[in-house]
Write a structure and sequence with these properties.
7-stranded parallel β-sheet, Rossmann fold, 11 strands, alpha/beta
């Protein structure tokens, strides 16, 4: 039986939960049944290297502005020449532009849409567009029951039309103690301090500013040493906040890391201060670690 051609489309491939799920999914599929490929628009990270090393074809279709005719024509070209059996879009931007491009095809493949969070804070405009996407998708997959419930309520679609498939994580091998000590020393953890770890994008949803306020409110002698593993548009603001709170020597921004699992195995505890999550990869990975 011929392996089915699967294309995943996503807006950005920076290091985030959905992006890690995409990399895990495409690199782990049974190649006797599936021929996976990826299209992304912006923000390359080491996850692209991981996919390419696994033999997954990756197409970068640059999107430089909100309305970009060159981007749209390039995306239409990839979709039209790939002879895909199914397309799975992982973000609203990807869903919207993929559906528009598919509308120009004589026999378009089915599109599977995604619900990757609660989206309860999104605007009416977001939900108008999401309703349009849901009405034209062959299937919708949510990574959590809560996300499916909220999407059904705010979109007006039947809850039964949304399938729930939770995020998957790899169970790591135990990390030797001496490797843990070496990693703690490498990132600068004082020998007498607990290591608190945040893993995620530095964006408003993650509520890291509240975490810094909470760390600063603790007595200095009992504060943990905080490592922020991730990057994002709020990095400079959070660095300035740590300085203003007088905790800059007890907080380190590690940036994007390809060893988040090792950091979790090394930390004393993980902190997840998000305003809302669908099904947090960081939480699942910390439990697995």
């Amino acid at each position: 039986m011929r392996a089915k051609r699967l294309l995943v489309v996503i807006d950005e491939m920076e290091v985030g939960g959905s992006q890690r799920q995409v990399a895990h999914l495409l690199s782990s599929l049974d190649r006797s049944r599936w021929q996976p490929e990826l299209v992304y628009f912006r923000e390359r990270s080491f996850l692209i290297d991981t996919l390419e090393q696994a033999g997954v074809p990756v197409h970068h279709v640059p999107k430089r502005r909100r309305i970009d005719p060159g981007f749209f024509l390039a995306l239409r070209g990839v979709l039209g020449t790939g002879r895909y059996d199914i397309i799975h879009a992982f973000s609203l931007t990807a869903e919207f532009w993929t559906l528009l491009a598919l509308a120009l095809m004589r026999r378009p493949p089915p599109l599977v849409g995604s619900i990757r969070g609660l989206y309860s804070h999104e605007s009416k405009g977001f939900w108008r567009l999401k309703r349009w996407v849901m009405s034209r998708s062959a299937a919708m997959i949510s990574n959590s029951a809560a996300g499916a419930e909220v999407a059904a309520q705010l979109s007006g679609h039947e809850r039964g039309s949304i399938d729930v498939i939770g995020n998957g994580v790899v169970l790591p091998e135990p990390m030797p103690r001496h490797h843990q000590r070496a990693l703690r020393a490498q990132i600068g953890v004082p020998a007498d301090r607990l290591l608190a770890l945040f893993v995620g994008r530095l964006v408003e949803q993650k509520n890291v500013a509240c975490l810094l306020d909470a760390i600063a409110a603790l007595p200095a002698a009992s504060r943990p040493w905080l490592a922020l593993a991730g990057d994002g548009p709020l990095r400079d603001a959070l660095t300035a906040q740590a300085h203003a709170l007088g905790i800059s020597t007890q907080v380190v921004c590690l940036g994007e890391r390809n060893d988040a699992t090792s950091l979790m195995q090394t930390a004393d505890f993980l902190i997840l201060p998000s305003y809302h999550e669908g099904l947090s990869n960081a939480l699942l990975e910390a439990m697995a670690a």
